[in-house]
Amino acid sequence: MTLREFIDKLNMESALTHVRKPVSPRLDAPALISELGEKPILFYNIPGSQFRVVAGLCSSRELIAKALGVEKEKLLFALADATAKPTQPQMVERAPCQEVVETSVDLDRLPIFTHFEKDGGPYIASAIGIIKDPDTGRNASYHRLMKMGKNRFAVRLVEGRQTHATYQKFLKQGKELPIAFCIGNSTAVMLGAAISPPAGVDELGIANALGETKLVKCKTKDLEVPAESEFVLEGRLLTQQVKEGPFMDLTETLDIARQQPIFEVDCITHRRDGIFQALLPGGLEHKNLMGMPREPTIYNEVGKVCDCRGVVITPGGCSWLHAVIQIRKKTNAEPQKAIEAAFRGHHSLKHCVVVDEDIDPADPAQVEWAIATRFRADKRLWVKENQPSSSLDPMADKPPGQKATCAKMGLDATIPLADKERPRSKFEKLRYKRVSAGDYL
Question: Is 249 in the active site?
Answer without folding.
Answer: yes
